[in-house]
Amino acid sequence: MSRFSCGSLSITGNFRDNNEDCCVVDPQQRYFLVADGMGGQAAGEKASAMATELVSKKIEELIDFDNSPSETVIQSLDDAVAFANQEIIQLSEDDANFHNMGTTLTFIVVVGGKLYIGGIGDSRVYRLRGDALDQQTTDHSLTQALVDAGTISAVDAETHRYRNVLYRYLGTKEGSTGTEPTQILPKEGDRYLLCSDGVTDGLQDDALQRLVQEVNDPQQAAEAIVKAAQDGGSRDNITCVVLHVI
Question: In this structure, which topology does domain 4-245 adopt according to CATH?
């Protein structure tokens, strides 16, 4: 059974008044979550906090982290996210202070030695295996949809005016349409990064890979990644969780 060493950091950054990001590292290392709220001020903070709290609670209720089969895990993840999504929608309808709030959510859940990686929105999970840093999640953004359709290139997407416009996130009916998790058997030496788009807003992929690869303590890596993104001009809150398979 794989074990993990982990580090995390979330900061407001240089351009925001409050931190609408939220991350959770389970003390028993069964799950790891990053959420990036939207809606302004308290609304974004509330949405990301609700998503991480409710999803954490639900997966603990629904999943046997030692023995649940894959189909049960996937259904439980979808049910947990759908539950959080409905609660966020309900509060946004009931309380004018939270009108139109929403949040992304990305996760790694560890069950029976296997990783389940997925999410909603444009927060990401990366894996470094050997010398290759690969994105394990798909952005639910308009630019990614245009890239997938062959309308624009991946290079064009980096500066496209719709790069931060999402078509799926928690707080909308599309937030309950499934998380489509990737299943991975971790290997010793693998390194994983969960992050909000505040990281990638200030860091190019090559710089991100270098930090993940070269900094051997995961807490120091998380701190170095956040600082580099901040120094690189990220205009958002900046959050990351770094996992090393040991």
Answer: Phosphatase 2c; domain 1 (3.60.40)
Residue owning tokens 């489509």: 180
Q: Which segments within the chain are labelled E, that is strand? A: 4-11, 21-25, 31-38, 102-103, 105-111, 114-120, 124-129, 132-135, 182-184, 191-195, 238-245
pLDDT 10s digits, 27-83: 999 999 999 999 876 899 999 999 999 999 999 999 999 999 999 999 999 999 999
Q: Report domain extents, the chain.
A: 4-245
CA separation for the pair 83, 70 (Å, rounded): 20
Give the C-alpha separation, 197 to 229, whole Å. Answer: 10
Tokens for 132?
Answer: 């290759």
The SS3 call for residue 181 is: coil
How many helices (H) and strands (E) the chain has is answered by 7, 11
